[in-house]
Design a protein that fits this description.
Strand order of the largest sheet: 3-4-8-7-6-5
Helix content: 10-25%
Radius of gyration: 23 Å
Strand content: 15-25%
Shape: elongated
Structural class: alpha+beta
Number of domains: 2
Mean pLDDT: 90
Oligomer: single chain
Bound molecules: zinc ion
Low-confidence stretches: 1-7, 12-26
CATH topology of the largest domain: Peptide Methionine Sulfoxide Reductase, Chain A
Order of helices and strands: HHEEEEEEEEEEHEHEHEEEHEEHH
């Protein structure tokens, strides 16, 4: 009997997941760089939403006036689509309309909402839906305050508010070390890390796609952007994780993934980070732990492009895929074994 083992690398996977927004559940980030819609069946929405949320967003329901906790919410923050986490409204444009529904005079961005004509209930109104997932949100009327004169009358049930906490401003770090699925999963487990996004960095091309980067046609490398609380984890500690997660002496590749799109890069945002990276590389070269010199590049951060939705939290969504089993999981375990004290205890793999 033959047991054929095929390792599908990062470049060969099929698109079988459309888990938009799911990468952003812990700490919502107002991402307006998305390019794909979120499409789900009614059955899938039913699983994700409460019956009330489903009724409002998918069956054009209207919540009872004066029933939303958001009607008089004065906190500073952002209101997201409860269905797909698209940022819809900022508290900066919220006003008290006295109607019983949370009201705003402008959407968060040009990618927040769509307007369409709703002729139900014997009247013609402008219906507002989420531009990304099509969720029904409410209506817009022309009796709002300046500067727009519009009143976006929203069902609070369709919204998810995230308060801005000035004490919790997160820092960012960006690294590349081969397949971003693995790096994302590694850093998601690090203490003090709130969110990790898979994407592309290191090249000059605008709006790169996975196919373009994967073919080696761009200057970008698969990268991760890490949002972390610098009071809980330092940049030098992230460097320890970064270097432990890879063979930093491998040139233009990582493990089975070959090509400059898999090269290793430590991006820095200021002189202190540059110095920290150079010091740590010097330390590693001196340590005798590697037979070849450290090949990771040290370059200034310029721009990070978020990857397509199906790459976010890939390992979590595809735990049984051969590449994940054969490459990613062992890599995560090796990293955790090297610096266990830096990981959240509940994320340590057996
Ligand atoms: Zn939405």
């Amino acid at each position: 009997m033959f047991a054929a083992l095929t390792i599908f690398g990062c470049t060969q996977s099929s698109k079988n997941s459309n888990a938009a927004g799911s990468a952003l559940t812990d700490n919502l980030i107002p991402d307006t760089s998305w390019t794909t819609s979120v499409v789900k069946t009614n059955a899938e929405w039913k699983k994700l939403l409460t019956p009330e949320q489903y009724n409002i967003t998918r069956e054009q329901g209207t919540e009872k006036p004066f029933s939303s906790e958001y009607e008089h919410n004065k906190d500073t923050g952002i209101y997201y689509c409860v269905s797909c986490k698209n940022p819809l409204f900022s508290s900066a444009t919220k006003f008290d309309s006295g109607t019983g529904w949370p009201s705003f005079y402008a959407p968060y961005s040009g990618k927040s909402v769509n307007v369409s004509v709703d002729n139900s209930e014997g009247t013609s109104r402008d219906e507002i839906s989420c531009q990304r997932c099509g969720a029904h949100l409410g209506h817009v009327f022309r009796d709002g305050p300046k500067p727009t004169g519009l009143r976006y009358c929203m069902d609070g049930v369709a919204l998810q508010f995230q308060k801005e906490d000035i004490n919790q401003k997160l820092s960012k770090a960006t690294f590349a070390a081969g397949c971003f699925w693995c790096e994302e999963a590694v850093f998601e487990g690090v203490k003090g890390v709130r969110e990790v996004i898979s994407g592309y960095a290191g090249g000059n091309e605008e709006n790169p796609t996975y196919e373009q980067v994967g073919s080696g046609a761009t200057g970008h490398a698969e990268s991760v952007e890490i949002y972390y609380d610098s009071t809980q984890v330092s940049f030098p500690s992230l460097l320890k994780v970064f270097f432990a997660s890879q063979d930093p002496t491998q040139v233009n590749g990582q493990g089975p993934d070959k090509g400059k799109q898999y090269r290793s890069i430590a991006f820095y945002r200021n002189d202190a980070e540059k110095q920290a990276i150079e010091d740590y590389i010097a330390q590693l070269n001196k340590s005798g732990a590697y037979s070849k010199p450290i090949a990771a590049q040290v370059i200034p951060y310029t721009k990070f492009w978020q990857a397509e939705d199906y790459h976010q939290n890939y390992i979590q969504h595809n735990p049984n895929e051969t590449y994940v089993q054969v490459e990613s999981i062992p890599r995560i375990k090796r990293t955790q074994k090297a610096v266990p004290e830096l990981f959240k205890p509940e994320k340590l793999l057996k």
